[in-house]
TrEMBL record:
Natural source organism: Streptomyces noboritoensis
Descriptive protein name: Uncharacterized protein
Ranges of biased composition (kind: Low complexity): 12-21
Region feature Disordered, mapped onto this chain: 1-58, 76-97
Basic and acidic residues compositional bias, start-end: 1-11
Top-rank taxon: Bacteria
Length: 97
């Protein structure tokens, strides 16, 4: 496979929309709430096709929340997709292709 699936893209985009304007505490709470859901894959099962009947969307959401939480841990501000270096890198790569 060449890259993320449509389901994974959709999961990441959904997290970014939800995280917009959240501070570190709020984003961490959202991550833990999602991770605690019964339908979330266990960390050791992520990547196993049988653990991802949704095409990997939930695993991508968990990974994106974790990334956002880590990013917000470094400053006291709120999440802004327009200033997220990872998102900007994705956009630049998409523009080049």
């Amino acid at each position: 496979m060449d890259g993320p699936t449509e389901a994974e893209h959709a999961g990441r985009a959904a997290v970014r929309r939800q995280a917009q304007g959240m501070n570190h505490h709020e984003a961490a709470k959202a991550f833990h709430r999602l991770a605690a859901r019964a339908d979330s894959p266990a960390p050791e099962d992520i990547g196993e096709p049988s653990a991802e009947p949704d095409g990997g969307r939930r695993a991508a959401e968990l990974a994106e929340w974790e990334r956002v939480v880590d990013q917000l841990a470094g400053h006291a501000g709120t999440y802004d997709v327009e200033s997220d270096p990872y998102v900007q890198g994705e956009r630049a790569a998409a523009d080049e292709s």
